[in-house]
């Protein structure tokens, strides 16, 4: 089989490796049919990888189950499933507590798309072995578009977690979104659907601002620290200066969620945050817990994630198109209707 391998700054290529095989009675072999880039993939392809190349890339997809071990009972061949980006057993104390990105049964940071916690392959591959298939794989609900939901493995479900629980606790809250990719756009749509009274989407890119405006949001190219205040601030830029700005644009006891993957150390206005009692969460998302909630919202028809898909491209074009860093390209096989 082939897997797509990141080999250096804006360079990826197909490489051959043996087909994955069932290694445990609880394994499944899946074939990605609609795969897309996470916002952090663009940083990796642009030369800011967390580990040296070469390595198989890709960690967001809807896949078709090809084969299952005898212990797998919840999915079977032919099923369409969402494949979470991190590896989790679903049974250890951390998984049972919802901390599926910190599973005790696999190496720390085990994930698809980067060999940080072992080599699990990437989801831009012809075939992928998924361990703990009954607890890892989430069936795609009938009627949902695999292309629209290709990002449910990470960014779409992460966006749900960034804003939905806070709006559930504080209905009608105001939301600031500092964005440079798809996460902020998903947040913009989800916050609208869940009743945020105001959404300000901040992004220098006119095309992404236009999408946010189509969701009924206010938009701006930039915002100064403390210029306006919100109940919730979402930072997904990867820039610590933007994170600092978000922390300074909050109501007292406001909540700042950071999903920016900050590869460079920066400074925060800690004394100002102290005076305003800012709540800040920076961390990897336990996405497996959130996927069903995000899929339920998508199935309700209250959100429109397909609007964020910037390009629908043939699977075979991955080596040429992926380095172009489109906002949200989805690469599909012939079995997926466009």
UniProtKB/TrEMBL annotation:
Which coenzyme or cofactor does it need? Zn(2+)
Q: Which domain of life does the UniProt lineage start with?
A: Bacteria
Q: Supply the source organism for this entry.
A: Zavarzinia aquatilis
| All copies of domain Alcohol dehydrogenase-like N-terminal, residue ranges | 27-140
Q: Which SUPFAM superfamilies match?
A: GroES-like, NAD(P)-binding Rossmann-fold domains
Instruction: Please list the GO terms describing molecular function.
Output: metal ion binding
Return the protein name: Dehydrogenase
Q: Which keywords does the record carry? A: Metal-binding, Zinc
Q: Record's Pfam families? A: ADH_N (PF08240)
Tell me the lineage of the source organism: Bacteria, Pseudomonadati, Pseudomonadota, Alphaproteobacteria, Rhodospirillales
* Family matches, as InterPro entries: ADH-like_N, GroES-like_sf, NAD(P)-bd_dom_sf
């Amino acid at each position: 089989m082939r897997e797509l391998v990141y080999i250096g700054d804006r360079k990826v290529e197909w490489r051959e490796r043996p087909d994955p095989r069932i290694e445990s009675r609880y394994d499944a072999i899946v074939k990605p049919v609609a795969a897309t880039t996470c916002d952090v993939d663009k940083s990796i392809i642009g030369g800011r990888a967390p580990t040296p190349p070469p390595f198989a890339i890709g960690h967001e997809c809807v896949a078709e189950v090809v084969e299952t071990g005898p212990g797998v009972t919840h999915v079977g061949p032919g099923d369409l499933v969402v494949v979470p980006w991190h590896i989790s057993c679903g049974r250890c104390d951390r998984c049972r507590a919802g901390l599926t990105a910190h599973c005790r049964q696999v190496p720390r940071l085990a994930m698809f798309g980067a060999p940080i916690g072992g080599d699990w392959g990437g989801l831009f591959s012809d075939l992928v072995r998924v361990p703990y298939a009954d607890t890892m794989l989430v069936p795609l609900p009938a009627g949902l578009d695999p292309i629209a939901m290709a990002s449910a493995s990470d960014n779409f479900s992460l966006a749900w977690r960034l804003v939905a629980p806070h709006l559930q606790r504080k209905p009608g809250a105001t939301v600031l979104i500092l964005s440079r990719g798809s996460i902020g756009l998903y947040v913009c749509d989800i916050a609208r659907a869940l009743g945020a009274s105001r959404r300000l989407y901040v992004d220098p890119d006119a095309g992404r601002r236009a999408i946010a405006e189509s969701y009924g949001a206010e938009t701006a190219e930039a915002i100064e620290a403390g210029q306006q205040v919100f109940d919730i601030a979402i930072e997904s830029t990867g820039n610590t200066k933007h994170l600092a700005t978000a922390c300074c644009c909050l109501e007292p006891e406001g909540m700042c969620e950071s999903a920016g993957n900050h590869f460079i150390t920066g400074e925060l206005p800690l004394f100002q945050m102290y005076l305003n009692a800012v709540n800040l969460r920076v961390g990897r998302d336990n996405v497996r817990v959130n996927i069903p909630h995000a899929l339920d919202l998508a199935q309700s028809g209250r959100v429109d994630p397909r609007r964020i898909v910037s390009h629908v491209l043939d699977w075979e074009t991955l080596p040429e198109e992926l380095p172009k860093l489109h906002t949200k390209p989805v690469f599909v096989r012939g079995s997926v209707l466009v």
